[in-house]
Amino acid sequence: MKHLRNNAILALLALAILAIPGGGRVAALFQAVLSLVLTALIAYFVGRLYRDHRVDIYGLGDVNRGILYVAIAGILVMLAAAQEFNTAGGSLVEAVALAVCAGALIRVYQAWRSY
To answer: Is residue 46 one of the residues assigned to a domain?
Structure first.
């Protein structure tokens, strides 16, 4: 019964967005706010993770730390620019770039485990 009530509330909200003039703009604003909140939470989590493991990261050495940072940046760039690679060749380039970044992360992990 509780699930039926919750689904009815969602259906009424969706109907209100469709029926009320300007509801689409309000929905787009709500989506943008949720995206910003999610991005802020992810940034907070990554910052907290960095602070908790700072000694481990600095213990990797300059070369492995640089490889780690470049691999993470490469993954973020490939994910952010995923829509720019809509062709078959672009998809191949993206897959190869992500594989190289994954290989770099594996190399850094193996170096970290060897200590």
So the answer is: no
Tell me the residue range of the domain where 103 lies. 53-115
Q: 34 and 88 share a domain?
A: no
Same domain for 115 and 60: yes
Could you give the CA distance from residue 81 to residue 73 in angstroms, rounded to a whole number? Answer: 12
Q: What is the pLDDT along the chain (115 residues), one digit of tens a residue?
A: 889 999 998 898 888 877 888 777 888 888 899 999 999 999 999 999 999 999 988 988 999 999 999 999 999 999 888 888 888 888 899 999 999 999 999 999 999 888 6
And the tokens for 96?
A: 């190869």
Q: What is the pTM of this model?
A: 0.68
